[in-house]
Fold:
Amino acid sequence: MMSCAVLFAFYGCTGSSNPAAASYRPPAAAATAVPGLVDWREIDSPVETKGVFSHVLIKAGSKTALIGGKDSAGYLKAALITSDFEKWSASDAEPGFGEREDFAYCTDGKKTYIIGGYYTDGKTEKYYDDTWETYGAVTFTAVPAEKKPAPARGLRAAVFKDSIRLSGGFDGKNYIDDVYRFDVKKGWIQEDREKEKFEARAGHGFIVHDGKLWVIGGKGRDGKFADVWNSSNGVDWEILTENAMFGPRSDFACFNFGGRMWVVGGELQDKKTAGDVWWSVNGSSWVQAAKDAFPSRSYPGYIILNDSVYVFGGVSDEIKNDGWWSK
Structure:
């Protein structure tokens, strides 16, 4: 799932075992350490909130909002907002795109986009093909599109060369290898990729780094991937490695930070989850920045603020209600 990509739900997180948590305050902006993201500190929230996974964290004005995803009671309808990462409250406004999980998310720094996703009530299920946008607010509005991508979950989005790009996903029967470009007049246009291309997948990393578009890991018909691909135009793709050091995994946090690409957490080939952190500059060589940064999880939410990275929620053997930060 997934560049572009606030949690939390914290359910009675007071009394953390981490001494740094009790005095936590968001750090002031500072020069990003290289390579960074080595030491992680737990955030302690005095407000009782539930664990969340398959959500995203976005900037909403001067605050941070957690939207979409699920907690132990089901799908989140209202957004959770915070100004200090300690006190959380439900927004009076709903996101507008309804109940869903495992959707694509990206931002160009001004507008934030939500595409596709999945919903089930246990009896029926729905895969979405719609596109939504917001300009710094919690509530999204639908974007008209004559042409739409395939309805799917686990698809990923990024803003590349002034256009939203979309890749992969799972439609309930098959994994998808399509790449789309959004045109404001025509909608989603499928790129013609006749040359070498990556296998169909979902739950992968899809980010912009070093002026190129990157596809990292994910899951497909035969299991998890550990490959890394890039493209300078979104059409022609080149493989950098088939076996990155972080190993086959999917549904991790993936982003560009401090001039490096990062892979954080996720689900491994054996269905176990990870709590490690990896970085790379060139896509072929990967370095482990932290082995056990936080309790392992997949489908975490993350956001980059004040030159720091915040990871919130996720799921392993239970839905997580903790948050961690590093810089």
Summary: The domain at 41-326 is CATH 2.120.10.80 (Neuraminidase). The chain has one domain: 41-326. The CA atoms of residues 34 and 288 lie 13 Å apart. The longest strand covers residues 125-134.
